[in-house]
Amino acid sequence: xxxxxxxxxxxxxxxxxxxxxxxxxxxxxxxxxxxxxxxxxxxxxxxxxxxxxxxxxxxxxxxxxxxxxxxxxxxxxxxxxxxxxxxxxxxxxxxxxxxxxxxxxxx
Length: 107
What we know:
The chain crosses the membrane at residues 6-23, 35-57, 63-85. Keywords: Membrane, Transmembrane, Transmembrane helix. InterPro entries: DUF6490. This protein is mostly helical. It has one domain. 74% of the residues lie in helices and 0% in strands. The longest helix is centred in the middle third of the chain and has 26 residues, at 32-57. It is flat, with a radius of gyration of 17 Å. 4% of the residues are buried.
């Protein structure tokens, strides 16, 4: 209980620091540092999400607990996809190769 509480207070500060460092890096940079920051962000958000899901599951009905864990899995999978599988996505927009060429030229 105490380690989780300490992590919940320290984790978001580390998360905000890593997000700011990632935002300050050049957009087209593919360095090891940027990949490491993405890994740390993904790890911190996943651990915080699963930690809250675990703690919250002790207070609610088991069916609700399953939904909370499903939400944590979704958040972790979503972040993994956009940070590592589709690294061309920037600021929540889809990359242009997903659009038909006619839509890209007319935009």
